User: What shape does this take?
Amino acid sequence: MNETVNNEVEQLLAELAKVLPGHGRVLIIPHDYPDPDALASSAAIQLLLAKRHKLRGKIIFSGIVSRAENREILRHFKYGLTPAQQWHPGGKSKEKCPAIFVDTAPWRGNVTVPSFIKPIAVFDHHHGKYKAPANMVVDINPSFGATSTRLWECLQAANIQIPKWLASIMAYAITTETFDFIRHATGRDIRAYTLLLNQCNMKTLGQIKNASLPRAYYSYLAEAVTNAQTYGRVAWTHLADVKQPEIVAETADLLLRMERIMWAFCTGFTDDRLIVSIRSEAASLHCGRLLRSLIGKKEGSAGGHEQVAAGFIDVSKLSATERIQRRDALEAKLLAKIEGRLSDTARPLLLPEV
Assistant: This one.
């Protein structure tokens, strides 16, 4: 790292040291349904706490890990992950457990915040307005393509050797978060990835990239293709009953790869939520801002980057018919927003229906 970056990271580490406890356990909380970047960054924080501060880190999360590649990551994970509902602070002390939020923040709607925690730090790279407490370290830098890049810089500045299994997961996280460096990637992401490759186990990396797919994946894929529609440069589809929420984002990624498609989104019902993932080839669309404008804080949550975003709407109080109507309304508003942002050179080019 150059001197400017190194000084910046050293200052961040010094600020973190001030808010950490002198001993005991620190909870590490990624966003619900953690993806590779959240998992890799959480493990990097646990390593940093252990090696630099002699503290015990504990990763707790809400939701599930269902995507094949993410489940393969857990197969190589050397740290434990505990569902938040299964972990409670021990002892009679009423003091809240210090917690570091990774790839999210306690004020975002994509993370479950346990009542027994006290947020002390945030490491994230997603856009969003916030007003953090003065006694909390907040490192949110949207210029990074992945939170793992920032944590790699922290480990480098702290002179901590990254084990091969973690280097493999961090390298994979950076490539998936930046779509192999074609979206919101920076030179710092590329540098981190390149140097991580020298430390990782290439066989582990290959096993993650080529993880075995469950049979249910093909059922979802068939439904997504059957329901897919196109208009101009936009493709979208819907999944009626999702048991694995990550498939919605995976489907949106797949649709965007369709020839001549520049925008894609997928919706799906899971439990009492209508979830949506949107993708764009054009940074000018700013998917995160667009989705937040359609999903109010009172009915759900949304967030993301210029070219990637996701969110959900609480439909627990709606009947089956009302849920479909809400889905249709969201779909219509999304299409209208996207069409409204089309440039004169990218006007709708009608394609055959899928």
About this structure: The chain has two domains: 3-209, 215-346.
